[in-house]
Amino acid sequence: MSVDRCERIADLLDALEALPQSAWVGFLQGECGTDGDLAREVHSLAAAAAGVCVLDGPPVMALIETLALIDEGDQVDPLIGVEIPPFTIERRLGAGGMGTVYLAGDVGVQRKVAIKVMNWERGSENDLLRFMREAHALGRLQHQGVVQVFGAGTFNRGGVPTPYLVMELVPGAVSLTEYLRVQMPDIDARLKLFVEICEAVQHGHGRQVVHRDLKPANILVGTENKPKIIDFGIARLVNVETELTAADHRPGGFMGTPQYMSPEQCGGQQVVDVRCDVYALGIILFEMLSGQRPYDVPAHDVLEIARVIHRQIPRRLASIVPGIPGDLEVIVKKALQKRPEDRYQTVDALQEDVKRFRARLPILAQPPSLRYQVRMFARQHQVAVGATLAVASVMIVATVVSLSLYLWGDSVRARSEWNDYAPSLQAAHRALLDGNSHAAAETLSRAPAQHQGWERDYLTNACDTAVQVLRGHLAGVNGFTFSDAGRRLHSVSSDHDIRAWSLADGTLLWANEHHTAPVWCIAFQAETEMLATGSEDGTVQLLRASDGGAMATLPVGNTVVRCVQFSPDGRWLFAADDSGVLRRWRFDASDPATSVALMEDSAASHFAHGGTIWQMAFSPDGSLLATAGWDHLVRLWDVETFRCVATFSDHRDDVNAVCFNPSSGPSPMFASGGCAADRAIGLWKLHSIPHPSSLLPLNTERNCDRVAWLEGHDERIYALQFSPDGQRLASGSYDGTVKLWDVASRQEIRTLTGHGGKIWSLAFNGDGTRLASGAWDNTVRMWNGLTGDHVGTLRGHDGRVNRVEFTPDGRHVVSASEDGTLRLWDADVRSQHRQIVDDFTALSDFSISVSKGLIVAVGRNPEIRVRPLDEGGDSFAIPTRPINRGLTVSEDGRFVACISQAGTMSVSDLERRKLIGETEIGLSVVKFHPRLPLLYIGGVDGSLRCVEVQEGLPSRLVWAGVGVVIESVGFNVDGAILACRLADGRVMIIDSDTGRLIRQHEFPDATDWSASLAFSPTEDLIAVGGGKIDQCAWVIEWRTGRIRHRLPHPRGVNAVAFNAEGTRLITGSGTDSTPPAVRLWDVERGDELLVLEGHRFKLCQVGFKDDGETLFGVDQSGLLIEWPRDREGTALDEKSRP
Amino acid sequence: MSDSPTEVTYLLAPARRGEADAVDRLFPLIYDELKRIARAQMQRERPDHTLQPTALVHEAYLKLVRQSDASYDDRTHFFRVAAQAIRRILIDQSPARRPLLAHKHPLNDDPAQSKAAEPDYHALDRAMKGLAREHPECTAVVELRYYAGLSECEVAQTLNLGLRTVQRHWKFARAWLQREMNASTTSTIAKPSHVR
Question: Of the candidates B108, B135, B177, which has its C-beta nearest A6's C-beta?
Fold first, then answer.
């Protein structure tokens, strides 16, 4: 309606006001003439305006009073009135940790709902996918006891896409606590209510949704005293993909109450399943029966909370409610067991027992026998849960995820479970590469069970490749040491504990809690079998390695003890702390009993550095100790006289690392590194040790040379290690790289890249052939200690790796992590990367025969070189014409056809190692028949000939062709049919024996095929690789010509292969400019399941070997990468058997 | 703690252009000021005194915007935002918060009005949205006249329209909105008059 019309109407309204209502019609007919619409419009408007008009009373009074009454600081909620179609937000109902709940009305229908607007800050597209899928799962919960979720989506809130959930509104409901307080029902009524609550929770479990945040505040009681559970599974919506950050203590970092958290929920490494809801229900039942909670969980200290939940035994109900029936006590106790496997395994089971109690039937749970209880009490430390407190706080602090609009209706759309499989895999793989192994494993465990495949097993095995996981620490593990010839491991942690483990089976031997603050360092003295530990509580503890019995506590002061070490001769114990003091005690290895008294008397100290002493190291002969400090200095001390003999001040920032060259002969050499300012490593050599009685002034460098100043790192150097033979130095830096240096020439050998975070620890194995590095990307990486080649990546930790060390026998690597665990890995990681062809620039072509395990290569030389793929078997050469430009090998590995530059083709027998014959046919493509000793040749005239592999190479014409050059040829499994792709894009399906043209298809869209083509072994499908322009692979039904899938692949596809069952397709991509990848696809649905990277050049061959166990890819440079389904890892005791 | 007046001044221009960030920041500032003034007025005046409704908004304006920097368009925008703030406030607070109003509206002599029940601000808000969809030119008039309480002359000045135009728009909108509200309350399933 135009403005003029609007104004006309207004004028007419004015006029009507002067007239009685009865006269309106007539007046309007006159005024409006033929415009009946106008007349009608004006009439209805006038009628409306004739009565009392809302707008006549400006709401100024109401406004002022309203404004005046609003509390100071009470902000009007800017979301009121916002439209989220079809709803409009009307009122705020309440706010919680994860979001704010509003009442909203549907304009079209008189319906009210609750909309929960999530607190959202940042998230990624991946988080979006996940949230939507999870929210969808919640919609499947349809039970009278569960608040129904209708839908989810996003809306634009000040520019930020914010997610929301639309839920059922429960009018007049109060929280469970409120209900109990006001209504005060009797025990039987409470139990009845509890049973109904259990039913609702069980419904969710039946739909694979665990609540994870059950508490009275999340249980509403509505009309007729029926419970309704809210926020079912919401906790998972917002935290599943959150980053598991390194555990810093975060006092008061919680939102919401941790009172109902089960032990596995405040431990990062345990899978959280339905039993955590059983636990929460146990606490709720306890509260419902007694009005109190079974134990008091403090609200602030994250460490304390985990401690209480893991360790404290719940109160007895009888102590609060005297006369409470014993059976109820048993039920509650069983639900509250610390270990999930000791609780009721399902909510149903818990509910059943409560129902039995109410019906006066005997319950099924057994009260724990006294002996069991005593044993449990004694074994409290052995509770098999690990913990990362950061995970606990992350689970509750809702880091929010971004969503996108997901169209629902009122009806929940049914989707097949398969739709979750591929995204689950992709999400798990991403999580794994980000270092979130636990999240990856959990995602995989939730992927639909019906869909198994090589890829799922591969990823599951990749999530954690540790041979052994030592769980038990509640906070990050800072250090460890071996004892008993490497059979025992002692670890220290920020949770104040010292633990001893048996490495053979991973059991806990003992735990010592004598420290009262985080413990940072530990040392072992072999002769006396004593351990020394240094802690933030300002003490050094001396304890027996065998049982953890405390021998002495040596006070250091109000400071943090950073390093503690025994001198190699066992006569002294040194400790260095944050205040810069170096302390020494006399230690008598021969008689530890008297040692303690001796120690206290003999304590001596020096104010060694102006600040924290970061590391100390003994010289190989044990006569010198080097200390590296915050004050930019490195100092050398005479161990015997405890005097400083040299000081090195070349560094311009604090020095984090110092280590001696283990084999530098009479003149000790050591390296120092650190420094954000100079980012360099100093190599120093001492010529002669000055007389110890002279105390040298600072800055003296008379007796040493700075041998080298190694630069190259971009950030500070935190880890330094010499190789055992002293010829190489490894440095690990905050820039995420490890550098290998040659000591003699002072040159950098190699930079080892790959870690995604700061390197904190390095270790060589006994013979220097392996180097292990631990970093902040939660991985340990293994390198060839001589060349720096990357051997493998060890994944499994969920927090940064603090320390790595080889076991004394060199067979395993131990890593300690911030996630509270130590992991044992097989040191003999077989490298997945192998360079099978070294001088690929001299070669023109090579091929692998998977079945025979051979590598066949040709080049300018007049020979065919054959080498075995694995160890064993010999190499040989078969003479042929010089300058060959291509070859093809038969599938059974018996024959090879070689095409020379001159245009001749020679066929050789690899078994008998001789030439069979040569021919001069001009050809474009050559392929062996998969079963018969036949060779098919595409001629330059577009014809197809068949050559018999025997003396004389007799050939016959199979198909005359259509005059267009054949670009690639592929056979099906038995060789009865072959497919030819022509230069003009047509695909011809031909009977390989008679040459009869079975089918012919045209694909105008496929403009740029690549040479790869493969038949599915089980269906009538062909896979063809598309080139740079198409950037995809095509899966075609060759009988009909229908394109079943177009699989997008950046940079096109150079190699395709099916697995033996025909259920999976492998594609290999790449051009020379971008890193290529191998992709695994599901053939039926065309979903991309896995992306495997690592190659640097175009892939030329891909496939499965070892009967479908290992996926491989070879690129043009001759790099072979194998991805085995199962990781090889040997348990300790297997290998130690004679 | 009130921000310096210049902050609002500098937000007006980008807010007028529709920059989400400026709009989001502008709203609470104005809202706070209105609250402050209202509280002060409640303390000073007796409820039956004649209250100038425009005083509320004008005072906020004087407080928040530095005259020398604000352009004419900015001023208009301020008043419109203030009006929208008031509109939001009215639908935000639940009925329980506000005491029943037993006294007359001092500005309206119509005795019938004083018996009128509290208008359903939610329904009005919905009707306003409909008006914005079909007759956007009238919306500004209603906001300033009804919500901000400006007189017809003041509305004309603010919007730079002729007085007669303002009167016409007001007349039309008043009737239209009333009709809309009548329709929504009488039927259980209200058929919206606009196309979704």
Answer: B135
